[in-house]
Records
---
Amino acid sequence: VESVSSQPEAAEVDSLGAVTGRAVAALVAMRVAEGAALVDSIRIDLGEMEAFLDWFEPQASTFRRLVFERLQDRLAELVGPGSTMEPERQVQEAAILADKVDVGEEVVRLRAHLKGFHGRLDEGGAVGRTLDFMCQEILRELNTLGSKCREVGVAERLVDAKAALERVREQIQNLE
């Protein structure tokens, strides 16, 4: 009667180790390739947000001037032609209100957040939570910009920038 050994032979162990090693290496390579593709996709969407800023920023002073003029006209309407309010005071009030809709700070912060986002992607490693937080900050700035600047054409482009941000947020959930 021959006894069956419960111990695997060395050749079987070596063969199993080699197969497992190749499978792990293939999995790691696949995940690295997937991560690189995700990063490329994220960079495209970040580019869309940067394109929005590139379009918006040169026009910001024009938007502010338009708001100032509308506010000045509205103030003149409210006060009326027989008003004792001095024209200089009307201009002051309109300027104060127009200053409240200034989006210069939001544009600067958005640019900084987008630059930081690119930097974290370049660093690699465990970036998911950090990038998720950065997405929240970018959304906050986009929302503030949108609430302050309601000029024609801004809303449509802002919606596109927010859609790109949402795609980024979805993609970073898949990064490790």
---
Amino acid sequence: PPKAPLTWKLFCLSEQDGGVLWEREIVQKQASYPIHPSNSWQTETPAADDAGVYVFCGAAGVLSAYGHDGALMWQRQTEVCRTSNGFGTGSSPALADGRVIVQLYGEDSAVVRCFDSITGKPLWSFERPDKGTSWSSPLVWRNRLRTEVVCSGGDRLDALDPVTGAIVTGK
């Protein structure tokens, strides 16, 4: 990993001309592991809804929420996942009815965490028994029966209830 601390930032750009409306420093932190040359330290993309913008910096283990005006709403520390082949992280946050969901699947642990989108309060976590890296993002699937959060990695696919984090089975 680099010896100097890295700085993660969030930029809000104008739809009209692409100019920077505001810029926020999310975190400045020493990287805890190297990454593959084909990756970057911020592969995850932000998610947004009417309440705010949510950005997960997987390599720093930081999940943050900002209002549309750039004001920090909340920030939470998460695990920093060691990934296979040294590729680095890549799972973006997903939004489901006032919840922010992050998938943290690495070589040492495999957990999904859910936070209230307004307060950042932890709501639930799901730990799958099979560890292993996954760069996929949680998928919020609204089907004819219910809403599910689908998380995949390795040879396993889990459908979770977005309210409780319990595995969804049957009807």
